[in-house]
Amino acid sequence: MTAHEGLDPAQSGLGDMDIEAFRRHGHAVIDWIADYLGTIDDRPVLSPLAPGEVRDALPATPPVEPEPFRRLMADLDRVILPGITHWNHPSFHAYFAITGAGPGILAETLTAALNVNGMLWRTSPSATELEQVVGDWLRQLLGMAPAWSGLLTEGASTSTLLALAAARERTDLDVRQRGLAGRPDLPPLRVYTSEQAHSSVEKAAIALGLGRDGVRTIAVDDRYRLRPDALAAAIEEDVRFGFRPVAIVATVGTTATTSVDPLQAMADVRDRAVTELGHPIWLHVDGAYGAALAICEEHRWVLDGIERADSLVVNPHKWLFTPIDCSVLLLRDTQALSTAFSLVPDYLATDDGEVTDLMDLTVQLGRRFRALKLWMTLRYFGAEGLRRRLREHVRQAARVAAWVERHPALELVVRPEMSTVVFRLRADDAEVAAAADRAADTAADTAADAAADRAAALAAADERSRRVLRWLDEDGRILLSGTVLDGRHVLRLALGNLRTTDDHLERACAAIDEAVAAVPPR
Ligand SMILES: *Cc1c(COP(=O)(O)O)cnc(C)c1O
Fold first, then answer.
1. Ligand 1 centroid distance, CA of 309 (Å)
2. Ligand 1 centroid to residue 62 C-alpha, Å
3. How far is CA 36 from the centre of its chain?
4. pLDDT in tens, 325-345
5. What is the longest distance spanned by two Cα atoms in the chain?
6. Ligand 1: residue whose CA is nearest its atom 4
7. Is the Cα dihedral 312, 316, 317, 319 positive or negative?
8. Over the stretch 351-390, which tens digit does the pLDDT of each residue have?
9. Does the bond joining 222 to the residue before it have cis omega, within 30 degrees of 0?
10. Residues 6+ apart with CB under 8 A from 369
11. Which residue in 14, 375, 427, 449 could disulfide with 461, CB within 3.0 to 4.6 Å?
């Protein structure tokens, strides 16, 4: 085939893809997506490729001559797809399971076509106003008061960074103007969050100049919820040593176990500290995954106390079926954000009057038109449709949890309240029990030996747990993820894909069963 065969007329000229060619390729792309989603079930969930394989399959130098669109699509299949881990797969149960659902996929195409940069109101009134409206719809769905308003960002990490920047600005330390470095007048600043909180809190502290030492992690209870008494004690101790508490971050749906921090009790601690210290302490709530559940009346308890918080992040790209990326930051006072970030250079000054220019609320200037996909997703499914789907995922999680409980080699770590099942391999019962018996022995050296035996039995169970994960990765039928909790390796099976059916749950249980049998205790 010669270089020009299959090229569109425009490719040898100066303009964009011509309209008729666009229509033809566009139909082919939509057909490709439909085929992909229609057959996704047959693919291994995790990409089986080794590091470097995708890179090696690609030319090392950029293309010189135009290439036919057909050939690009062929290489999508040949080179790119094998290196895809299929997040839209119904047997993707790792991390938090998500869905980039149909309405959002189509909306993303439209967003690219409109190619809006929503930095100012006038650079597309629809981008700004639709963003405000979908933020407000989400607020209503979550049962929150009208005073709150929303802003879309790329992800929870960015949302939390913005919230903590607002919190820092609310101190009277004038960090916006004078920075943090080289200022002997400043006390060290502190943010408090549980030891189960997401790493994005620490990353925000790194970016904001608070440093990792600026984050004090607070102990959790036996259900992995922040302990308010420990929070109060930490703040009291810090104040005694000259630290300045700036913010408290609660988590609704922690990454490891989906635990829900006690917002009311944390707000009580905050209020008491504010009264004593006489300066504000921001309460931010990280509900990236879990806050979505509050759209269901019977689960609204997960946000009990939210009215006392200052900000909340929820990711529609996590459990509201919107394609990545889409995070909503809701604030009781968006003014706090513009106080932190508004900076208008002459070339962006407008006389549009009483409008919001979204650039004033964030670090970024240019912004994607993210609201369109959230708008289309909310409308396509409707509030009741979304609730039905969340309830289905909660039901699926309960069903898998019941299976885990019946399984002789497995045990639940916590009873799932959301859609993630956290479980682990039992350490060899006989070994652990024997070790415990010996530990009860009064002879000190025997007890020490027994403790060592017990630790060895648990370590063996953990090692086996990791091998079970690797076995499942290679098998490809399902994808789980693991983490470490209380020093033990645990497995997580997350539900959240709209194509996951009870058949997929059976597939998951069968695969785990086989993995456990294939990886015997040592
Ligand atoms: C996923 C998650 C995050 C990070 O979200 P991004 O959108 O990837 O930045 C933060 N916190 C919690 C609790 C999460 O589940």
1. 19
2. 35
3. 25
4. 999 999 999 889 999 888 888
5. 89
6. 156
7. positive
8. 888 899 999 999 999 999 999 999 999 999 999 999 999 9
9. no
10. 111, 114, 116, 118, 124, 127
11. 427
